[in-house]
Every structure is written in structure tokens, then in C-alpha cells.
Amino acid sequence: MLKFKHFLTAAAAVSFIAAPAAFAEKVTVGATPVPHAEILEFIQPELKKQGYDLEVTVFNDYVQPNLTVSDNQLDTNFFQHRPYLENFVDEHGSDLVEVAAIHIEPMGIYSRKVKDLKELKDGATVSIPNDPTNGGRALLLLQSAGLLTLVDPTSITATVQDIKDNPKKLKVKELEAPQLPRSLDDVDIAIINTNYAIDAALNPLKDAIYIENSESPYVNILVASSKSKDKKGVQALIKALKSDAVRTFINDKYQGAVVPAF
User: Fold this and answer.
1) Residue 12 has pLDDT above 90, yes or no
2) Under DSSP, is residue 259 helix (H, G, I), strand (E, B) or coil?
């Protein structure tokens, strides 16, 4: 039985904490709710058997999880892809490092107003994430869908200023990633990260009208600091996350909306 613990930070929502055990070593990780915290909750019992109490703090943004690991408040985090980590390290100069590649969450285009991108009218409004790497990823997806072209067609950090051709004169609205599902009533299409789509009861395979393929380079990773990466508990967490049991769990639970990357 999992206990619930509330944290008084702006981003933290709730933590899943395994019941304490004598002489157990605590391993702490920050994660976004779906699918990251769900995957971590799944491996809690296995780590418990190995003598580790996995404490998961759930965040609803993409900044605080990195700051808490950088400040050594948490051992690890599990929420981001490689380009986001690289951009964060460049901007903040932190010592965060990737320690394991776990899964891919294909980004998708969603709509409550059209069922096919061919139905989009000139001047349609599209909402995309406002952080640099996910915003660039969204623009690349729009380019892949044939809706626009970029000055550099391979740039993962492209911004709306880098749009070269926009034949439908799409109006791009930049929002924080968690707000994108809520924007669906106000825009023609929204580009949503899979974790937030699932959390909003959207099935990427059924509800997205266009989606990244399984070869997406945006692998979701477990991240630690230089001080925590070699801890025995962190190494045990890596092994548990890359197990056959987790591969089966991901495939069975998410039915292709989340794809194992190990």
C-alpha cells in the first residue's frame, strides 16, 4: 500500500512513498505524472525487495525537477528528453548528466475542430510548447506534416521566427506545455507532449491526427547529478527501469503511445 505525501513547492503535487523498512536506503526521484511516475510506482516493490525505498516526487512543470537534482534535494529525475537536458545544462551550467535512456513518447497533433490536417483553413491557430526544445520539436512536427518549412529544416531549437514558409498563414500560439490540452477548445490544433496528452485522457494513437514515428530522437531519460550518479541506489534504479518487466509494463499499459528505448 502506497502512502501519499504532499510537498509545499510550486511545482510538486504529491509523492508516492513506499512504506519504510529497517535499514532500507532511500532513493529519491522527481517525475512528471504520466507515464514517468506510473513507471516508477510499478518498480517500487522490486526495489523494496532489494533494500531500497523509492521516493517519487511528482512535478507538473519542466523546470523544478532539474533544479532540485542540481541542488542535491533529489538524487535523480525522470521526465525529460535529451535535447531538453542539453539545453538546460547550456543555460544553467549545472552538472546534470544522463544515466539511462528509458522510453520515447511520440509528440502528436490534436484537434477538436478538424479530423484531418487537410481540413485546416487559412489563418488557423496552432498552440505549441513555449520551452525551446519542445517548441522546436513541435515546429519540426508541423514541417513533417507539410504545414510549414523552417529556415533550417533540421534545427531542434527552431522558434517561430525561424519559419520560412507558412502557406496556410498559421497563427502560432506558444503556451506552457501543461496548458496545451486545455487550449484545444480555443485553437484549431494543438501540439501536445504525450505525457500531458495521456494525463488529459487523450489517447495518442486514437486521438492524435498526426504523430511522430517510433524513430523519434527524443528519448526520455533518467538524469542524475555528478554527486548522485554513482550511488548504489541510483544504479539499482537504473537496472530496475531497464528490466524486461518494465518493457512489458510499458507495452501493455500504453499500447504504443509510449515506446521502450532499451
Assistant:
1) no
2) strand
Distance CA 120, CA 29 (A): 42
The verdict on whether omega for the bond into residue 35 sits within 30 degrees of 0, i.e. cis, is yes
Phi and psi at residue 139, in whole multiples of 5°?
Answer: -65, -35
Q: How many residues does the chain have?
A: 262
| pTM check: above 0.90 | no
Q: Are 259 and 220 in contact (CB under 8 A)?
A: no
Give bridge partners of residue 260 from the DSSP assignment: 103
Q: At 22, is the pLDDT very low, low, confident or very high (cuts 50, 70, 90)?
A: low
CB atoms within 10 A of CB 8: 5
At how many degrees (to 10) do helices 244-254 and 38-49 cross? 150
* Mean pLDDT across 196-205: 91
Cβ contact 190:47 at 8 Å: no
Rounded-to-integer distance, Cα 187 and Cα 260, Å: 32
| 3-class DSSP state of 256 | coil
* Structural domains of the chain, ranges and CATH numbers in brackets: 3-105+218-260 (3.40.190.10), 108-211 (3.40.190.10)
The cell for 94 is: 549545472
Residue 237 and residue 228 in contact, taking contact as beta carbons nearer than 8 Å: no
